[in-house]
Amino acid sequence: SIAVVLLSAIGDAVHGMPVVTSLKRAWPDARITWVIQPVAHALVEPHPDVDEFIVFDRAAGLAGFREFRSTVAGRRFDLVITLQVYLKAGLLTAILDSPRKLGFDRHRARDFNWVFTTERIPRHEPQHVQDQYFEFLRHLDVEPVHEWRFAFSRAEAEARRAFFAEIDRPALAVVVGTTRPGKNWLPERYARVLEVAETDMGLKPIIVGSEHPAEVAAARRIVESTRARPIVALKNDLRSLAWILDGSALMLSPDTGPLHMATALGTPVIGLYGYTDPKRVGPYRGPRDLIIDRYSRPGETVPSAETRSGNMQKIEVDEVLQKIELASGNPASADPT
Fold this sequence. Notes:
38% of the residues lie in helices and 15% in strands.
């Protein structure tokens, strides 16, 4: 039996999907348990390679830890894989009973996370987060399987069909806000991009994301200042967001969870990067020439976890439109990773 501790966020959960698939392919008889938080669980709950989810409610405080301890009491796992480096993941790892608890090397682990593991993957030069997770598989002599299994139900497939039946042109899904202001692009520039995408490029903009107040406010500003008529599909439902992204021709987004969802689904993504490093958290398997990178400085080649404020404003409307034109007009010219 194997327990995978990967709690959040949405992008991390997406990166965890091929990990559990790889483990199940290597050891079909193993029972795989995924320890996860509620929001991320809502996205990956139908995953066919996970036998059990244990949902940890961090918002419950100490009561959440007590409930977790009660849930796993008397159970013993052959292997625990801790894919995150924060204290809460370490504490849950400590509660789990296993002779083998595998985590990050001490150089990369935070919050004394290495104290809670019995075995660590070797130190490695910085790389994309997805490749960091694959390091655990290689340490276990498991070949990574590059499959992201969303497992849409018949009801979801029908909802997707009905939604897009009302749209008479290819859809451009757009994330216009995140909860971290440094990642956000300017609303007035989104407004101009949506106008051109709709009137000149034959695309139908769909504003996607959650109902978080910051995203709702950004969407309102854009709708009020654009001549485009975007569909606003903000909803606290990651599964419906997934099938919208799956049915869209393209996606435009800063670094946020839905960007990684779209990439995993195979939807071409124009990624806007200035606050975070696309070498570390960019679209994992998307075309490199669709990324707008205002984060990296000349000569930088090593991925970095440092955040850099003020760079998103350096992204201009024309260069975003050029990327959309590249992706929609001649996607075969893109340079795949």
